[in-house]
Amino acid sequence: MTRSLAESGCNDTEKAVSLFREHYNHHLLDKTKLYPNGREIVEHFSNKKNTILSNKPIAFIEKILEAMNFLPSFDSILGGDSLDEQKPNPKGLQFLMKKYNCPPKNVLMIGDNAIDVETGKHAGVITCGVTYGLGDPNSLRDSKPNFLIDNLSDLKSLFN
Q: Cα 9 vs. chain centroid, distance in angstroms?
């Protein structure tokens, strides 16, 4: 938000964040949809622990998932306000690994941006970049994930 306001002449970051969150809370579902094959791939791997680690506030994540009837598909959800650190700090991922007693070699961090890959690398887990979404695809490639896929359904052949 600070970077966004830099050229505007406004320096009240706290108020800007508050206004943004209020607006986003009312409009977060306007154009939100699941990534192609997202529901199917989570269902396919329902015998595994499926978690979400996001920098988005937890209340927004849960509101989105509930509206999409997808909340029960996840064993745990951590948002940007769940712990005192956010991605790329690995603390959230390490918390989840400890909670489910999963060693790094058995954990796959999937994300659409370089911060996700960096987080996974800091935690010593396997990383997989998805080439579409909100992240910059070039930055994602440059982060050198263990795997790079164009479709979530590719996970079936990679990790079955």
A: 32
* Contact (Cβ atoms closer than 8 angstroms) between residue 49 and residue 100: yes
Q: pLDDT tens digits for 114-149?
A: 999 999 999 999 999 999 888 899 999 999 999 999
Amino acid present at 31: K
Q: How many domains does the chain have?
A: 2
Asked if residue 96 and residue 50 are part of one domain, the reply reads yes
Distances (CA, A) of 119 to 46, 65, 108, 128: 23, 23, 11, 11
- Same domain assignment for residues 71 and 150: yes
Q: The pTM is what?
A: 0.92
Note down the domain range covering 78.
Answer: 36-158
Distance CA 61, CA 146 (A): 27
